[in-house]
Design goal:
about 450 residues, alpha/beta, 18 helices, 13 strands, about 40% helix
Length: about 450
């Protein structure tokens, strides 16, 4: 925990009051380690002002430790100006960086060229850096990058950079939306240099949608080269029976969290046998799986994916909106409650179930899943069902710590009844320090 005097000094510097206090705290005699701690509390502007104070403070300003973690937002309407700042920083302090986050802000046909050149220069300047964590947000090659030559130059810059990075532990290029060949080139560069060190691999939306990546032999070879994975985030169209078998061997005893996104526009009708999941769990005893269904509500699509031997910890289900759809959500929720009662801890549901009553299925899920701690529901649920959930919590028959309920489609009378229920159990929620929030989608409600 940081010492209070450090934050106090940093506050004085930010407010320009450090000279007035010089005698009382003997500024000139502060040891280097104390000055570095003070610098750590300041933004770049205040750091620069502090460095102008004296030669000693200017010397500390150059300490590598102060520049280990950096975040840059590249692009936007000031793409050129922001890019120049990032490149200038990399020229002077790029070799000090260990934890790097880049974010692409509003790419367009114009700014993409600027972003590409900025990243090319930036990566050249930090080639000698030993990057441990790399994160790139919102690249979205499929959506915004219309010119092939610009995309190819950008990907070449990535490949050259990652081939020189042999100490990566975290690689996160979620939402990159890469074409298949370009995405594989980037991942091959990462695998070749850091396949034995990367333990957190985030590939959610790394490839653009509609690709059946799991069928590509080249991709299977790439995944096999990551031998130290503890955390893996990926789309369902990138996994298959063969991929799971590879992880059973390559990540044996190591894989702890496996996060899977299933999206409507991605291929998701291939099946992974429950026996394959069982072998993965046996190989990785601490494994927990999180699954996110987006714009998918039909039980015929969901149930074949949710096979019983998945060690499912967290599930999010968003059906999307379709007034004519017959989701058969009752079957889906009953399946979840009956098959994952020993491992499920977090459930989040946004359901368009205006044609279907799901009270019984929700109560079954809550009663059976004894490890369930976090429950979020946005759906058509009766007032009586919500009351039963509160009663179960009061009687200690369930152990929820967080319950966020948005009841849709209530009449004003039903909402009045729900408010009375909420008020009735509010003291219990507070006494037990429970995060229970019960509300409606009625616009008349201000609370």
């Amino acid at each position: 925990m940081a010492l209070s005097w450090v934050s106090e000094i940093a506050s004085w510097i930010r407010n320009g009051n450090y000279w007035s206090s010089m005698d009382s705290i003997a500024w000139k005699n502060l040891p280097d380690i104390a000055l570095i701690e003070v610098y750590g509390y300041l933004g770049d502007g205040d750091r620069a002002n502090m460095a102008l104070t004296c030669k000693n403070w200017c010397r500390i300003f150059e300490t590598p430790r102060l520049w280990r973690s950096r975040s840059f937002e590249i692009g936007g309407y000031k793409a050129s100006q922001i890019g120049q700042i990032a490149v200038k920083f990399s020229e002077k302090y790029g070799s000090f960086i260990r934890y790097l986050t880049l974010s692409c802000s509003h790419p367009s046909s114009h700014t993409c060229k600027i972003i590409q050149k900025t990243m090319e220069d930036f990566f050249q300047n930090i080639e000698s850096a030993r990057i441990y964590d790399f994160e790139l947000e919102r690249l979205e090659l499929e959506r915004f990058w219309k010119y092939d030559n610009v995309r190819e130059k950008l990907v070449d810059s990535f490949v050259k950079f990652f081939r020189n990075q042999s100490h990566l532990r975290t690689f996160d290029m979620s939402s990159a939306q890469c074409p298949l060949t370009m995405g594989c080139k980037i991942l091959e560069a990462v695998r070749e240099a850091s396949g034995e060190s990367v333990d957190d691999l985030c590939l959610e939306d790394f490839f653009h949608s509609r690709l059946a990546v799991f069928q590509v032999k080249r991709f299977r070879g790439i995944i096999a080269g990551f031998t130290n994975l503890r955390f893996l985030s990926i789309n369902y169209n990138c996994i298959s029976e063969a991929i799971i078998e590879i992880l059973t061997t390559s990540a044996s005893g190591k894989l702890r969290n496996f996060s899977i996104k299933v999206y409507r526009s991605d291929p998701h009708f291939h099946r992974i046998p429950t026996s394959v999941w069982r072998r993965l769990k046996q190989s990785c005893p601490c494994l927990e799986v999180d699954i996110w269904f987006e714009s998918i509500g039909n039980s015929t699509e969901i149930l074949p994916i949710l096979v019983p031997d998945i060690p499912l910890r967290d599930i999010h289900l968003w059906t999307g909106y379709d007034d004519d759809a017959e989701w058969n959500l009752h079957a889906t929720l009953m399946h979840i409650g009956n098959n994952f009662k020993h491992c499920l801890a977090n459930v989040s549901m946004e359901l368009d179930n205006n044609h279907e009553i799901i009270d019984e299925a929700i109560l079954n899920l809550i009663n059976k899943c004894k490890k369930l701690k976090d429950l979020t529901i946005n759906a058509f649920v009766s007032v009586d069902a919500i009351k039963q959930i509160c009663e179960l919590q009061e009687e200690n028959k369930i152990k929820l710590r967080h319950f966020n309920m948005t009841a849709c489609g209530l009449s004003e009378v039903e909402w009045t009844d729900l408010c009375e229920i909420r008020d009735r159990y509010e003291p219990m929620f507070k006494a037990r320090d429970l995060k229970f929030f019960i509300k409606s989608d009625l616009l008349i409600d201000a609370q």
